[in-house]
Specification:
Tumour_necrosis_fac-like_dom; C1q domain-containing protein; 1 helix; Jelly Rolls; mainly beta; C1q_dom
Length: 147
């Protein structure tokens, strides 16, 4: 997801739209689609997801950059993050992490959760907006969280 693609994609992201990443570093068996933004589980098991959104402070759009994104797995919201920058030269990033059981063919995606300001930031010289998913082979899990 480099800045040329990101700029156009950021402008087109309305409420509830899926973030689409135009590049993959590793995409075993094509489980992530750069056309739809969907990660499809190739087999049943436990999957880990991490995603980072960065907002660009160098674009003044009524308050610079602000984005909120949620991870949706099989239609259910599993995590949310928010990044906001209020002044020029104050790029902001936020990262989420979720472990979730998925069945074969299950789908995971990132979705824009509100009307945003500015644009996402993703370039080699400053910061990258990313989405990663992988299957865990064996997991002994303890999860504690605040409600």
């Amino acid at each position: 997801m480099f800045q040329g693609f990101v700029n156009g994609h950021s402008k087109s992201l309305s409420l509830g739209k899926t973030l689409i990443f135009d590049m993959t570093e590793t995409n075993t068996d094509g489980i992530y689609s750069t056309n739809t933004g969907i990660f499809k589980a190739p087999s049943t098991g436990m999957y880990a997801f991490t995603w980072t959104i960065c907002v660009d402070s160098f674009t003044d759009d009524d308050g610079y950059g602000e984005f909120g994104v949620e991870l949706v797995i099989d239609g259910k919201i599993c995590g949310k993050i928010h990044a906001d920058t209020e002044v020029r030269t104050d790029d902001q990033c936020s990262t989420g992490f979720v472990i979730k059981c998925m069945t074969e063919g299950g789908a995971a995606r990132l979705r824009n959760i509100y009307v945003h300001q500015g644009r996402l930031l993703s370039n080699e010289n400053r910061a990258r907006t990313t989405f990663t998913g992988w299957k865990l082979n064996k997991l002994i899990l303890y999860l504690a969280k605040y409600i």
